[in-house]
Amino acid sequence: MDSKELLRCQQIAVSLAIKVGQMMTNASGESRNISQKDSFADLVTETDKAVEKFLFDELKRHFPDFKFIGEESSSRVGLTSEPTWIIDPIDGTMNFVHTFPFTCVSIGLTVDKIAVLGVVFSPFLSKLYTAMKGCGAYCNGRPISVSKNCNSLKEALLVCEFGNQRDEEKRNAVFRNLESVGWLCHGIRCMGSAALNLCYVAEGFADAYWEFGLHVWDMAAAAVVLTEAGGVAVDTKGGPLDLTNRRIIGACNQSIADQLGNTLPIHLELERD
Ligand code: LIP
User: Fold this and answer.
1) Are 76 and 163 part of one and the same domain?
2) Is the Cβ atom of 71 under 6 angstroms away from ligand 1?
3) How far is the CA of 3 from the centre of ligand 1 (A)?
4) Count of domains in the chain?
């Protein structure tokens, strides 16, 4: 895909994300018609579904030949090399349900299974993150950069998530990893949106984030924001990020990513997307 086409993709994704922001704020405070998915802590609201339909319809109109993956409608992800829009209509649904403002819409585009464009918009935080491969990362139109002076876990503010699975293997992994890393760093925050966590590392507010159990739609868009802000998005065991293998370390630099990955005692192997 050439840069002109990528720019057109970004312009359309941004205009749609802003419209989605309006849908999210309009729904806030109203009954959200909530249902459970895989566990009592894995929820979907009427707004998630409405946003996903809106984005699919609009993007299909502009890009009829592209493929589409969305959290609420793609049972088997099957990421291919084709240009693919990857949508999380509301990332941080649990926050949305509770009116905790750390929630966003996430629109990513992959080509050859690599994320090349990311648009992440949080209407409640008034933050619009945008990035295209090779063109830098921006928040509300201003360039952003990862933190520059963090060289050891001892000086790092970290972000992680409990996630929304509740099985014993996952619970054990979360607590053992937290216990191993938690006392070695400046602090740990768990805020409930994978996409915004990655964007906060991109903006230099935190130094690294890790999670096991997330999906391609939680990370595709924001991984571009992070890498374009000078950070790294990698597999927890090291090596390149695989968008379909359900785990990520996003960090301000490779050394912090390696230190974090080497400190985590459990690297969950989950069924791939
Ligand atoms: C959620 C994430 C959250 C993570 C959960 C889940 P959803 O996305 O952003 O941070 O811990 O595993 O993936 O379901 O709100 O789109």
Assistant:
1) no
2) yes
3) 31
4) 2
Using DSSP's 3-state secondary structure scheme, residue 137 falls into strand
Q: For ligand 1, atom 11, which residue shows the shortest CA distance?
A: 163
Phi, then psi, of 10 in degrees rounded to 5: -65, -45
Under the banding of pLDDT at 50, 70 and 90, the label for residue 34 is confident
Indicate if 132 and 212 belong to the same structural domain: no
Residue 162 has a CB neighbour count (10 Å cut-off) of 16
Of the residues 49, 193, 217, 243, which should be mutated to test ligand 1's pocket, given the most ligand atoms within 8 Å of the CB? 193
Q: Which atom of ligand 1 approaches the CA of 191 most closely?
A: 10
- The alpha carbon of 257 and the centre of ligand 1 are apart by a number of angstroms equal to 21
Tokens describing residue 40? 């009592």
CA 215/CA 217 separation, integer angstroms: 5
**Pocket lining: 163 vs ligand 1, CB cutoff 6 Å:** yes
Ligand 1 mean position, distance from CA 169 (Å): 18
Beta strands in the chain (DSSP E): 35-36, 43-44, 67-70, 84-91, 104-111, 114-122, 127-132, 137-139, 142-143, 157-160, 187-189, 208-212, 232-234, 247-251
Poorest-pLDDT segment among 31-35, 51-55, 101-105, 246-250: 31-35
Dist. CA 193 → ligand 1 center (Å)? 6
Tens digit of each residue's pLDDT (9 = 90 or more) over 185-213: 999 999 999 999 999 999 999 999 999 99
Domain housing 57: 3-143
Q: What is the pTM of this model?
A: 0.97
Q: What is the CATH number of the domain that holds 215?
A: 3.40.190.80
Catalytic residues: 71, 88, 90-91, 93, 218
